[in-house]
Design goal:
The protein is of the alpha/beta class. The chain has two domains: about 160 residues, 3-Layer(aba) Sandwich (Rossmann fold), CATH 3.40.50.720; about 160 residues, 2-Layer Sandwich (Dihydrodipicolinate Reductase, domain 2). The chain has ten helices and 15 strands. A nine-stranded mixed sheet has the order 14-13-12-11-7-10-9-8-15, with helices on one face. It has a six-stranded parallel sheet with strand order 3-2-1-4-5-6, with helices on both faces. Helix 6 links the parallel strand 5 and strand 6. Helix 5 packs parallel to helix 6. The N and C termini lie close together (about 10 Å).
Length: about 350
């Protein structure tokens, strides 16, 4: 396995963006709940805020109209942008420092492997990492073999609002964590496309590998045994699911993914000395009063204002590449989340609890 080498930064790093749907190209917009500040919600709007760190020099999509739309939106920001219909041509010609893989879910693997093998030193990959564990494993093998620094964009790991929960857990403010419940209700409660965000944050808060899963898919998906989505367009292409997850450290997780209900995305973390319930618009923080023993609500020590997690993910990736910093959402972290999704499918078929495939050790 190659060692990851740092490269001193004398100017902005050269970046290429592959896949130009809304998550790649949307302008910065206000969020819709809770008074959260203006977000660089897309990769382009995040990169536009850090031109001193990263210069977007090339874009690629197999649909010419997507390229035209991107250049119409962002041509004034990056007037010298090179455009490609073939990602392999872009990789060969552009001498990239970073490639951002923002394609449909099932097309990440081949591009990541090609980029790593071509010597591109850093990769930003959208979630989910892949749609099969076999693809995830060959991505990890290529990244390891080439010493590539890779981040998987499970957004909330960089959001300071959600990250504050992790800090409180690690500081022991909730005591010993017993259960973590992740809820994804609404039309787009799709296991691969959006469920990956819920499950990844559950794993992050648990701080331990997921070991076993018992699960049921929503009715009508009895024969759903592998990804057959369409890149997230049609909610009917993926099921919702309910799952119980046992972590190696004894924490139990409950994943509630239900379509056709009131839209709701939140996490509820319960420990022996406290509780936090959090979503995009609020956080309830409760701890035991040392004198009365009652559960008392406390002020949550974080504000709703943020500059955007995708921007923070890019900043972290640059620091990892140029100064040897750590990465908060690695390919192996993302494989754990995919491992839970794959176990959910196997458990539904088997009608019993199954072991989570942990993959090869680091």
């Amino acid at each position: 396995m190659s060692e990851s080498a740092t490269r001193p930064q004398s100017g902005p790093l050269r970046c290429g963006l592959v896949g130009l749907t809304f998550i790649a190209s949307s302008p910065a917009v206000p969020t819709i709940t809770g008074g959260r500040g203006v977000l660089p919600y897309s990769h382009a709007s995040a990169l536009a805020r850090i031109p001193h760190l990263i210069d977007l020099v090339a874009i690629c999509d197999i649909v010419p109209a997507m390229i035209d739309r991107f250049t119409d939106q962002w041509g004034a920001t990056w007037p010298g942008l090179h455009t490609y219909l073939d990602v392999h041509e872009m990789i060969a010609r552009e001498q990239l420092d970073i490639i951002a893989v923002v394609t449909p879910d099932d097309r990440h693997a081949d591009i990541v492997v090609a980029a790593a093998n071509a010597g591109i030193p850093a990769i930003m990959c959208e979630k989910p990492l892949a749609t099969t564990l076999a693809d995830a494993d060959r991505m990890i093998a290529a990244v390891d073999a080439n010493g590539t620094r890779m981040t998987v964009e499970h957004t909330r790991r960089w959001d300071p609002y959600y990250h504050q929960v992790k800090a409180l857990i690690e500081a022991g403010k909730l005591g010993e964590i017993r259960t973590i419940t992740g809820t994804l209700h609404g039309e787009r409660a799709m296991l691969f496309r959006n469920g990956t965000h819920i499950l990844d944050l559950m794993n992050y808060y648990a701080g331990s590998p997921p070991a076993r899963v018992f699960a049921r898919l929503e009715p009508g998906y009895e024969d759903f045994v592998a990804y057959r989505g369409d890149g997230g367009h049609d909610p009917a292409s993926e099921p919702g699911a309910t799952a119980m997850i046992e972590y190696e450290n004894g924490i139990r997780g409950i994943y509630n993914g239900e379509k056709g209900t009131i839209g709701l995305t939140e996490w509820d973390i319960l420990g022996t000395a406290g509780r936090i319930r959090i979503n995009a618009g609020f956080a309830e923080y409760w701890t035991l009063d040392p004198e009365s023993g009652d559960l008392v609500q406390r002020p949550f020590p974080a504000t709703l204002i943020m500059t955007g997690a995708i921007q923070a993910a890019y900043e972290e990736l640059v620091a990892a590449l140029t100064a040897g910093g750590s990465i908060r959402s690695t390919a192996r972290d993302a494989r754990q989340t995919l491992g839970v999704i794959e176990a959910i499918l196997r458990s539904n078929q088997a009608g019993q609890m199954v072991e989570v495939d942990q993959g090869a050790p680091a």
